[in-house]
Amino acid sequence: MDLDFTAAEQEFRAEVREWLAGNVPRERLPSMDTRAGFEAHREWERQLAHARLSAVSWPREYGGRAASLIEWLVFEEEYWAAGAPGRVTQNGILLLAPTLFSYGSAAQRDRFLPGMARADHIWAQAWSEPEAGSDLAALTARAEPAGGGWRLHGHKTWSSRASHADWGFGLFRTGPPGERHRGLTYFLFPLAEVEVRPITQLNGAPGFAELRFDGVFVPGDQVLGEPGQGWRIAMATASSERGLTLRSPGRFLATADRLLRLARANDADPVLADEVARAWLDAEAYRLHTYATARRIAAGQEIGSAASMGKVFWSELDVRMHHLALRLLGERGPLSAAAPDAEDDGRWLDGFLFSLAGPIYAGTNEIQRTIIAERVLGLPR
Amino acid sequence: MNFAFSDDQLALASTVRDVLRDHCPPSAVRTGRDRRPAWAELAGIGLFGLLVPEEYGGLGLGLADAVLALEETGRAALPGPVAETVAAAPALLAGEDDLLTALAAGRTAVSVRIGDQVYVPDADLADLLVLTDGGRPYAVPAAGALLTLQAGVDPVRRLYAVAFEPRAGRPVGGDPLAALRRVTVAVAAQLVGAARHLLATSVGHAGTRRQFGAPVGSFQAVKHQLADVAIAIEFAAPLVYRAALSVDADLPTAARDVSAAKAAAGEAAERAARTALQVHGAIGYTAELDLRLWLARVWSLSAAYGGTAVHRSHLREALLASPAPRRWP
Predict the structure, then answer these.
(1) Which of A260, B54, B138, B274 would suit a FRET pair with A15, their CA atoms being 20 to 30 Å apart?
(2) Which overall architecture, per CATH, does domain B176-320 show?
(3) Residues of B with CB below 8 A from A274's CB?
C-alpha cells in the first residue's frame, strides 16, 4: 500500500497544470445555462480537445490519451484546482461515452465519439418524465417500429442542458405498457427534431428543459444495444453517474481549498472553523477512498452498488461546503454574480444552488440509502 | 499510486481474524478477561513483534502492515492492552534490548500512560507498564505499581490510576510522541473494526427481528440509519490507513493525519454504536446481550488518546492557523 504517484503520473500532472495555467480563461465564463454561456463553454471544450485534454481516459483514436484511472483523477484534481470552467460536455463524455464503449457498436463509436470529444455535439440526458422521477421504471414514453427505425412519442422533463444541447439519449418503452423495467430501449436522437421547452431553474437560467416527442423518427442504428435491453444499459450509465466518473474528488478538493481560504480570510469563529476543517478533511477522505476504488477497478473488480455510498457522501459534502461559505459571508452570502459586492464573482451562491441538485439527481439520496441498505448490507426488501 | 493493501497485509489480517474467531468469541470477551483470550495464539503468529526490529526477533514492519490486523482486534473486542503492546511499546522501548526481545516473543503485555492520558488501560492485564513522568518514560513491572481501579462503563477494558516509586521504574530511551501517534492510529483502527462488528450485528438483528409482520430491517427508517453507518465507516477507514502510512514515513502531515483518523473513526464508531442500540431496541439495552461489550468498547476507545473533541480542535488549529496547510500526496 502506498500513496506515491509514479514518475509518469507526476509528468502528466505537470503537463496538465502547465497547460491549464496558460489557457484557463481569466474571466469567469457566463453561465452555461444561457445560450451565450453555452457557446462560450463549447469554445472552451474545443480548446481542451485541441490539446487532447477533453477526454483523457478515452483511446487515442477517438481523441483521448488512453490515460489510466489514476491519471484521470490527477487530471481532475488539476482541472478544478485551476478554476477551469464547468464541463458542458459532461453528460456525453463522462456518462454516455462509457456506455457507448460497453454497449455501442463500432460504427456508433466511430460516429459519435470524435464529435463528442470536440464538443461538436453536446449531449443531454432524457430520463425523467413527469410521473417517473426516482421511479424511473414507471416511464411511459414509447417508441414504435416504423420502416427501418422507430418513432418516438411521449414526454421527458427536467433534462439538464437540453435547452441548448445538440443530441439526447434516454429510454423509451418498446414493449407493452406497464412492464416496468422490461421492454425498454435506449435511444440516441438529435434534439433539433424534438419540441424543447426550456425550464428556468432556481438560479434563474434555463438549465432544464421539457422534451415532447411527437412521432420523431429515429433510424435503427441509433438504438444503443439491443431493443429491450435499455434498463440494463441505463443502469450502467447510472452507476457511472453515481460513481467516479461524474463527480471525481477533484472538484470537491478545489471547493474545500477555496472554503478554507475564505474561512482564513474571514477569521471564522471557532464553530464555523470547526465545520470548515471537517469539510476539508471529508474531501480528503473522498479522495483517498477514490484512490482505493480506482485501484480496485484497475484490478478488475466491480464497484456496483457501493457507488451509492460515494454519491451520498459527495453530494451532501458539496451542499455542506457551499452552505458554510454562505454562512461565512453573512449578509453577502446571497449576492449573485451581478452584485458589485459579490464574493468571487458569485461562485459561492451559484455553487450552492448547483450543489442542492446533487442529493436529487442520479437517483435521490433516499433511493441511494435504500440501495445501500438492500444491496450492500443485505437488508430485506 | 497503489492505495490498496498488499496480499501479505491482507493475509495477516485474515489470519488474525481466524484466530480471534476460534479463540476470542463473544463468550470469551465476556467471561475470559482474566486469561487474556487468544493472546498466546496471536503471539504465535508474531502479532506482538510486528513493529519490533528484526534484530530483536521482531518482523521490523510498519504500522501500515499492522493496521488491518489491529482492526480485527477491534472487531473481536479482544481483551487486553493490544494497541499499546503492538503499536506503542516498540517505540517506547527502543534501544532496550532485553525488553524488546521479550516483547517480540510475545512474552510481555504492555500498557502505557503517555501524552495527556491520565489512566492506564488494562493495567491489571499488563506485565509491564511504560509511564511518562515529567515527560520521561519509565518501564515499571506491573507488579511493582500501585493500581487503583477507576470503574467505568466498559467491563473489559478497565482504567487504572497508577502510582509507582521512582526507584521501581527503569528509565527507557524511547520516543513518547512516536508511541502516542502509533497507538492513536491503532486505536482508530480498532474503532473501525468495532464499528464494522456493530453494523454487521445490527444488520443481522434487523433481518430476523419481526414486528408488524415484517423484519424491522425492511422498514426504510431503519434501513437509512444503517446505510448512514455504512457510509461513515466507509469514509473513515481510508483516513486511518493513510495515517498509518504518514506515521511510518514520518511525514510533515503526520500529526494532522493521526488526528483526522482518530476523529473520523471515533465518530463513525459512535454512530455505529448509537444506531446499533436503536436498531436492537429494548433487548440491546440489557447486559444480557453481547452487544453491550462492543457499545462499551466504542465509548471507551473513542475517549482514549484524545477524544473526538480534542482531535477536532487540533485539526481546526492545523488547518486554519498559519501557515497554509498542504495536501499529501
Answers:
(1) A260
(2) Up-down Bundle (1.20)
(3) 312-313, 316
